[in-house]
Amino acid sequence: MNKNLKEAPNFNEVDVQLREKIRKQGLSLGFDWVGFTSASKNLTHSSYLAWLEEGFAGEMNYLQKHAAQKTSSQNVLESAQTVISVACNYFHDDTSTIKFQDSSRGRFSRYSMGDDYHLVLKERLEEFRKWLLSEGLASGFEQTRVYVDTGPLLERELAWRAGFGWFGKHSNLIHPKLGSWLLLAEVLIDSKISPDQPFSGIDCGSCTRCIEACPTGAIVSDRQVDARRCLSYLTIELKNTIPKQYRSKLQNWIFGCDICQEVCPWNRKAPKTSDSTWKARNGLRDRKLWDWVRLDQEEFSKQFRKSAVKRTKRRGLLRNVVTALSACSHPQAISGLLIGLRDEEELVRQHSAWALGFRRQRITKSILWRHLRVETAEQVIIEIQDALASKQKHSSKRERACLLTRQVSLALARKHRLGPSGGNHRRSSHNRRTKLLQD
Ligand code: B12
Ligand code: SF4
Ligand code: SF4
Predict the structure, then answer these.
(1) CA 423 to chain centre
(2) d(Cα 336, Cα 105) in Å, to the nearest integer?
(3) What would the 3-class secondary structure string for 181-242 be?
(4) Measuring CA to CA, how many Å separate 181 from each of 55, 146, 399?
(5) Is 384 part of a structural domain of the chain?
(6) Quick one: which atom of ligand 2 is closest to the CA of 258?
(7) What is the signed CA dihedral for 153, 78, 30, 263, rounded to 10 degrees?
(8) Residue from 69, 68, 266 nearest 175 by CA
(9) Most C-beta atoms within 10 A of its C-beta, which of 102, 169, 176, 213?
């Protein structure tokens, strides 16, 4: 760790005034906190590399791609001297914790309920950049950069170094007064501004609430999140199938997850923002899971225009919805899954089949059987077979005989339809079916 960062800053009067002026401007533009750090080498880059090395990034290949650049903020702007780190409070309501105990409502993580923060903060950063230029705090447009989330910067480290707060055990940065419901962003400039001191003095102590509350055990140790297990990754970043072992852990989260921050004692007194940008859009809190399954592409585009939820696309959101329906205790959950089973997206049908298999009701078996007759996508067929196999021990002799007849005729029909070339790909499905019949 760079010792110099620990030394008390020795600001002169001009420094103090300049820093205050910039801070004030940042706050007036809608940020809730502003801090300064140098654009020098990062101190936690080795933690970042170790994290990648463990494979914790899953399929987020861009994190690997950015690894070398993340050694220093000067790698994105060679002339950068100062990083102005800013944070925006998006804590717009505290009702969701109670309301969303209801398993029939899908939960969106708080940051995603209003407008897309990438767009909102980018706009504010651009205003900030313009102002900084007009004040002569950068020598030209090309000598500045603005970032929110997607750039190759270690945003949490920068905010920590600029005095924001500490890395919680859940790895989110916590401000001692504002809590952790804050988004981070930065402006890089080529003039030198005296840096703040890195935050120190408070940490999580012996608390382990977030680690215990995480439904998938994603917080593998202090400040280490295995993204592959995190619901935020599984419901947003992961584009295809959710690994089976995590599907039943979704509860009713359909976009992101806030559990580790909700249980954190430092968020108990987090101030609410009055900024309407973050307020939940209509329908986001009240719509039932079985109604979300009916969402067509047009409605999806309309509902999530300029929203972060667009990232999953319709297919990803509906995949999450039908997965969450597996745990929904309401009788209408089945009708939602029936719709999901007929969705145009294979991914949605696949997860619907799994969810029906996961549920206990007898009717789910006949639904799956019926659908097996008409389904044509290999992966969905496999999923239905697995679902039926998981119910096999509860089947009567008659049902098994019936399954046998259907399976055989289906296998024959498929073989007939496929011809010699389709064999290999379909072979695994055929084998599975045979295995199912033998079990
Ligand atoms: C990839 C990513 C994810 C991944 C991985 C998360 C993770 N924990 O690594 C997934 C998809 C799971 C995710 C989820 C979420 N994310 Co995210 N994510 C990012 C992104 C793009 C990169 C993070 C990264 O590099 N991770 C790799 C790890 C190694 O780096 P790190 O998390 O920064 O961790 C640092 C510390 O842990 C520290 N460290 C580790 N060990 C030690 C030891 C010591 C002694 C010290 C001093 C430091 C230290 O060093 C690391 C490197 O700097 C950043 C934006 C960015 N460019 O930084 C947003 C970001 C971190 N995410 C953010 C948010 C809001 C979320 C969610 C809350 C969203 C949600 N509700 O669903 C969840 C929170 C989940 C969680 N518990 O982390 C915010 C965090 C704001 C904050 N207050 O901290 C960021 C900064 C985006 C933003 N611009 O605001 N995210
Ligand atoms: S966001 Fe949810 S799944 Fe991810 S670490 Fe936090 S509690 Fe665990
Ligand atoms: S819940 Fe406890 S351990 Fe987790 S971040 Fe908050 S204070 Fe730290």
Answers:
(1) 38
(2) 12
(3) CEEEEEEEECCCCCCCCCCCCCCCCCCCHHHHHCCCCCEEECCEECHHHCHHHHHHHCCCCC
(4) 27, 21, 52
(5) no
(6) 1
(7) 20
(8) 266
(9) 169
C-alpha 139/C-alpha 310 separation (Å) is 37
Q: Which residues line ligand 1 (CB under 6 A)?
A: 44, 47-48, 51, 60, 63, 109, 111, 148-149, 153-157, 167, 170-173, 180, 182-185, 223, 225, 227, 230, 232-233, 237, 256-258, 260
- What does the block give as tokens for 121? 């903060």
Q: How far apart are the first and last CA of the chain?
A: 60
Q: Is residue 69 part of a domain?
A: yes
In a domain, 312, yes or no: no
Domain presence at residue 253: no
Q: Tell me how crowded residue 205 is: count the other CB atoms within 10 A of its CB.
A: 8
Residue-wise pLDDT for 21-35, tens only, equals 999 999 999 999 999
Bridge partners (DSSP) of residue 225 are: 219
Q: 308 pLDDT exceeds 80?
A: yes
Q: Which residues are catalytic?
A: 149
Containing structural domain, residue 142? 3-91+113-189
Q: Which of 172, 173, 209 to mutate to test the pocket of ligand 3 (most atoms within 8 A of CB)?
A: 209
Number of folded domains that form the chain:
1
Return d(Cα 343, Cα 337) in angstroms, integer: 10
Q: Kindly tell me the burial class for residue 58, based on how many C-beta atoms sit within 10 Å of its own C-beta (0-12, 13-18, 19 or more).
A: middle
Q: Which residues contact 230 (CB under 8 A, 6 or more apart)?
A: 216, 218, 257
Which residue in 321, 311, 360 sits closest to 341, CA to CA? 321
**For 189, left (φ over 0), alpha (ψ -120 to 50), or beta?**
beta
